Batch of 4 targets.
Target 1
Amino acid sequence: MGTSNIQSRRQLLAIKIVWAILFILIGIGIVFYCRYHGLFLPNWVIWEMNQSDLGNNKRIQLANKKLSYYQDDTLLWESEKDWKISKYLITDIDEDDQDEVIMLLWNRGDYGDYHPIWEKPDKINYYEHLYVFNLEDNRLERQWMSSRLLPLIKELEIGKENTLVAKDPEGVPTTWKWITWGFTAINP
Ligand SMILES: [Ca+2]
């Protein structure tokens, strides 16, 4: 009687342990899935939805975190499905008489175009980035992609003398100027 009682207690304990491990694994799986698909982005991000008329029946549209470039109803270009774009600006940031589209977005990975060979890039988690694309006749052509942004940017505007004025989530402003290949912080 006593032995079978101990056995059934052990069996019950074993079942509980198996269930606990199963729940932990499912929990880890859910957390990993959410992080991988960018479902844990900060709630201070302002997801804008708007569009710009470019003339010649062309337009750029930001909706549902995706940027699209249309001529009439023909889709010329659209952002990659992993990108979550919160805002875009159109300006000739490098002053070569051709407009660029500047995107503020969240994308998987902490590096942009390049990463130091001695560092292992994080290709799982989402980070905030700034991308600059040339506005071509029938597509957007990648020009420059930042690594993860630090400080983070909540608000972004075009400032005086073709600068970018960014505000972090606490409202602290920084001013950036395109110099040769990338943005450099300058005094406002
Ligand atoms: Ca330009």
Note: DSSP finds one helix and twelve strands in the chain.
Target 2
Amino acid sequence: MNNKEMFDQVSSMEEQIGQLYQQLGDLKGHIKELLKENHRMTIENHHLRQRLDQEVEQEATKASEKSDQSNVIGEGHDNLARLYEEGFHICNVHFGSPRQDADCLFCLQFLNKK
Ligand SMILES: [Zn+2]
């Protein structure tokens, strides 16, 4: 290899190194953008998760309130049914008075309605 060839080769390597250096800079820029976006997404995800948790909690509270109410209604119905079994009217026609062993159509209707 003569001196001219050696000089050309070194020049070509220098050029390649220059191009690689530029590519490296570009890649670094992309990575910086990705890191920023990743950070933004992490924060957004955190906020969305918090909101989801809140809504799930609210739904659960609503659902448990609803089931409490239907339990109260069920309990009231059971109490009235027991009262009827014990021989008292629970209909609004004769409420609270003794049934004297006969079934009352008003009471039965009232019980079935519930
Ligand atoms: Zn009755």
Note: The two ends are 106 Å apart (CA to CA).
Target 3
Amino acid sequence: MEGVNEIRRGTLQEQTFYEQVGGEETFRRLVHRFYQGVAEDPILRPMYPEEDLGPAEERMTLFMIQYWGGPTTYSEQRGHPRLRMRHAPFKVDRAAHDAWLKHMRVAVEELGLSEEHEEQLWRYLTYAAASMVNTAD
Ligand code: HEM
């Protein structure tokens, strides 16, 4: 008979990053805090076409959830992310990149994740931000 402390073969499921860091709530907190920064930012705020930042916040939240292994609601609503293409209408220069990452940094730190999770998240965000730059000046 199996011991009570044994894990039955095949029942140990690997958790996604999304689950490991606390699921939907964590990503909602991250992106909400980020958009509080955007709302006050003299470079970023004017770039957003809509007066209400709420819908943009929701799109970014659903994207992050999907990227990190949660539900795929983003693609159900928006299709393939194609982020570079979706950013093409906006002038993403060095200054916009730096401002974007500055607000993300604050938001990431406030999550209080483990060092490993924080590093993994931050590595992705810095890489993704660099790849979104589409204007040299
Ligand atoms: C580097 C500086 C960046 C700037 C200045 C910027 C700016 C913007 C702007 C103005 C929009 C349109 C707002 C809207 O109506 O949704 C947008 C959309 C979006 N951005 Fe960025 N962004 C940057 C980087 C990134 C990065 C690194 C990611 C992902 C890791 C990202 C993810 C998204 C997503 C998911 C959307 C919504 C796309 C859609 O479904 O339409 N952005 N961004």
Note: The helical segments are 17-20, 24-39, 54-67, 73-78, 83-87, 94-111, 115-132.
Target 4
Amino acid sequence: MSAAAMVAGIPGAGPQESDSVTIISIFPVERYHELQLGQFADGSQLDTDGNPYPAGTPMGGFRKFRLDPATRASHRALRVEGGLKWIPDFSQVGPDEPTAGITPIWQSAKMVADGLVHKWTRHTLGVTGSPGVEVLKHEDIEVDDTGNPKVDSSGNLKPSRQCIARMRKGQEVYAQSCVERANGLHVQGKTTAITDLDRKMAEWLYGSAVSSLGWVEKPEFQETKKCLACRRDILGSALRCQHCSADLPRWCLDNGVDASGDPAVTAAIERLRAREPVSPEAEAAKIRAIESKPLSHRTKAEMKELVAHRLDNPEE
Ligand SMILES: [Zn+2]
């Protein structure tokens, strides 16, 4: 069945519109969108009774569109094809048919792609520059010596060097505006208002030099806890209370207080216990265990321990 026959009766449909277009991105953040977009049955789709829909039947459906984050040196490409958009149809509404039906309208690849690019760049309206996501225009396609379009390993059309350079220039201005905004927030102490997008744009703009910006590292959330001794708020990692100056691991050991609700103090108590002197019997048993091993099976730490033991107990 020809493409023209398949799309018969669908407004706007035609073989020329069903061509694909390519979206190019140099944006360092993933772009994703899901659209309600149908297609004509190709004979492989089955109805609930297991019978195939005749080829050319307009079908509903969803399509996922994704562009991975681009690095400074790379771009991403996404091929987009046309599809069917189902819209309410009021033409049959009357006394016998009170509700509107839905009817398919053909969306060309260009229309779908333009919609995606608008969706992915509109949050930047009102700022200078342009985020680097656009529909690849005919004149921006890289061609070989014979004038044929070049494709990458995934079969996507390649943008020309000039096209990427122009997109970079636009995105640099945009990234600069993100950095300026974030710098302003940082100076005002409003670091929490700085977004991940600001950070990604700064990284894209400055590469490894970005660490010189004071706000690029996300501030770590500082947890607090109640001091086990005086119940006042202290830093989650604290081992000594800033209010009552209790040495918390020691205080818990001395007072028999359960510190299991405080991971920092629990770990410190374990370290203290490990340092506690062991009994002479336990020490002797450990040394005997090391001595019973063949020389080649003893670890460096065990050998050290053995030497230390013999130096401490020369009479043995
Ligand atoms: Zn305290």
Note: Residues 161-187 form the longest helix (27 residues).
